[in-house]
Design goal:
Helices cover about 45% and strands about 15% of the residues. By secondary structure, the chain is an alpha/beta fold. It is globular and about 65 Å long. It binds uracil.
Length: about 450
C-alpha cells in the first residue's frame, strides 16, 4: 500500500476501506508517513468528506493507537458525558454528582481548558488539595465505592489524535465534520464508557456556529458511538451566550454548587437535567426521559447530589469546606464593572470573544504551557433578551493582572450587543439526537 495512492483516491472523492485507513493512521503515528503527506490527505478529507463507514474506521484506528481503557472492574453500566466545548460550561460538575447520587457509575476522564473554552480538570483544581492524576486502580476503586471519579486524560489516550490534531491546527483542516467527530469520539471510545452522552454546542461560542452544522456533527458522532457498540446520544445546546452567568474556574465552581442547591440559571439547570436524564435512561436507571428528568430534579431538591459532590471532592483529596462555604474561594483582587452605554435589549453576544476576555484576565490558556489564575474570570449580569438601562452593569471582570484590564473591558463591552427592539429568549436545548436517525 502507498500513501500516495490513498491521497489520490481521497482527492478523487473515492471511499477508502478500513485497511487503507488503518494503514494511514498507524503509519502517521509511527512516523513512517510524513507530515506533508498526512497534511495533503487531511485537506482532501476536508474538501471531499468521508462516508459514515470511513469515519467509523478512522475513529477506531485513532482510538486503538493508544490505551483502550477497560472499565470492566467497575460494577454496572458506566456513563460518560462530553461537551464539544463552550464558554461557562460547568455542567460536568453538576451532572456527574446527580447521576452518581442516583446510583449510576460515572468514570470520567477530562481535559484542561485551551483557548476560549474551559476544562473540568482546571475547575476542580480550584479545591485546595484536589488530585486529578489517579492510577487506574484508584480510579476504579473510587467509582465502585462512591460512583464518581474524574481524572485527567492519560498521556497515551488516542496518541494518533494528538498528532493529527497538531497538524490540523496549522494546516487549516480543523473545520471538517468527519475529522472533528473522529477526533472527539476516538478519545471517548478509548475512555471505555458503555453509555456516552454528547453535548454538542451551537452558536457564537462554539466550534459549530450554526444549529444545522451542530446537528450534523451530533449525528455523525452518534453514528460512530453506536457503530462502535456504545449506547450514544447527543443533546445539541445553545452557545450563543455563555452558559449560566460565571466564566472562569473557581467562579464556575461556585455557580455549579449553587446549581446543585437548585439555584442555578435556567439554561444551566435545563442543560444539566437534560444531560443527566439522557445518562440515566442510557444506563437503564429510568424507563423514559420524563421519569429520568424527575429523578434528576429530585436528587438536587433532596440534597443528595450536593452530598455526592462533597463526597467526591473529599475522595480526591480536596477540601469540601469550600463547597460548603463558597466564600472561601479567593476572588481576584481587581474588580471592574462593564456598563451599558445605551438602554435597550441585549440582542446578541460574541461568545467566543467573551471566552477570549476571560483568557486575557488570566482564567484561560493561550498555549498548553500557560499558567492560569483560578480566581480570575467574569460574572455576566445579563442574558440575551434582558432589558438594560444606560449605565447598568453588563458584566463584572475579575483579575490579578492590571495589564489587561483596559483591553478586557473594551472588548467585553463590544461583545454584548444592545438593540432597541425586543428580543425573544430562546430555549437552551435545541435538539436531541438518538441513533438510527437520518
Ligand atoms: N475537540 C477535539 O477533541 N477535536 C476536534 O477536532 C475538535 C474539538
Amino acid at each position: 500500500m502507498r500513501m500516495y495512492d490513498c491521497i489520490l483516491a481521497k482527492k478523487a472523492g473515492r471511499e477508502l476501506n478500513r485497511e487503507e485507513i488503518e494503514y494511514i493512521v498507524d503509519g502517521f503515528t509511527d512516523g513512517s508517513i510524513t507530515d506533508y503527506q498526512m497534511s495533503a490527505f487531511l485537506m482532501a478529507v476536508c474538501l471531499k468528506g468521508m462516508t459514515g463507514e470511513e469515519t467509523l474506521a478512522l475513529t477506531m484506528a485513532m482510538a486503538k493507537s493508544g490505551d483502550m481503557l477497560d472499565l470492566s472492574p467497575i460494577v454496572g453500566k458506566k456513563a460518560d458525558k462530553h461537551s464539544t466545548g463552550g464558554v461557562g460550561d460547568k455542567t460536568t460538575l453538576i451532572v456527574g454528582p446527580i447521576v452518581a447520587a442516583l446510583g449510576v457509575p460515572v468514570a470520567k476522564m477530562s481535559g484542561r481548558g485551551l483557548g476560549h473554552t474551559g476544562g473540568t480538570i482546571d475547575k476542580l483544581e480550584s479545591f485546595p488539595g484536589f488530585v486529578t492524576e489517579l492510577s487506574e486502580q484508584d480510579f476504579f476503586m473510587q467509582v465502585n465505592r462512591i460512583k464518581l471519579a474524574v481524572m485527567s486524560q492519560t498521556a497515551n489516550l488516542a496518541p494518533a489524535d494528538k498528532k493529527i490534531y497538531a497538524l490540523r491546527d496549522v494546516t487549516a483542516t480543523v473545520d471538517s465534520i468527519p475529522l472533528i467527530a473522529s477526533s472527539i469520539m476516538s478519545k471517548k471510545l478509548a475512555a471505555g464508557a458503555d453509555v456516552i452522552v454528547l453535548d454538542v454546542k451551537a452558536g457564537s461560542g462554539a466550534f459549530m456556529k450554526t444549529e444545522e452544522d451542530a446537528i450534523l456533527l451530533a449525528k455523525t458522532m452518534v453514528e460512530i458511538g453506536n457503530g462502535a457498540g456504545r449506547k450514544t446520544c447527543a443533546v445539541v445546546t445553545d452557545m450563543s451566550q455563555p452558559l449560566g452567568y460565571n466564566v472562569g474556574n473557581s467562579l464556575e465552581v461556585e455557580e455549579a454548587i449553587a446549581a446543585l442547591h437548585g439555584a442555578g440559571a435556567q439554561d444551566l439547570m435545563d442543560a444539566s437535567f437534560t444531560l443527566a436524564a439522557q445518562m440515566l435512561v442510557g444506563a437503564g436507571r429510568a424507563g423514559d426521559l420524563k421519569e429520568a428528568y424527575g429523578l434528576a430534579q429530585q436528587a438536587v431538591a433532596d440534597g443528595s447530589a450536593f452530598e455526592k459532590f462533597c463526597e467526591f471532592i473529599r475522595a480526591q483529596g480536596g477540601d469540601d469546606g469550600y463547597a460548603k462555604g463558597t466564600k472561601k474561594f479567593p476572588r481576584a483582587g481587581i474588580e471592574t464593572k462593564v456598563r451599558a452605554e445605551r438602554a435597550g435589549y441585549v440582542c446578541r453576544m460574541q461568545t467566543e470573544e467573551i471566552g477570549m476576555v476571560s483568557l486575557l484576565l488570566g482564567a484561560g490558556r493561550q498555549t498548553k504551557e500557560s499558567k492560569i489564575d483560578l480566581s480570575a474570570g467574569i460574572i455576566m449580569r445579563v442574558k440575551i433578551g434582558d432589558y438594560v438601562e444606560e449605565g447598568d452593569v453588563l458584566a463584572t471582570l475579575y483579575t490579578n493582572d492590571p495589564s489587561g484590564v483596559e483591553e478586557a473591558g473594551r472588548r467585553m463591552l463590544a461583545a454584548v450587543e444592545i438593540s432597541g427592539e425586543t428580543v425573544e429568549k430562546m430555549s437552551h436545548v435545541l435538539a436531541v439526537i438518538h441513533g438510527g436517525e437520518g
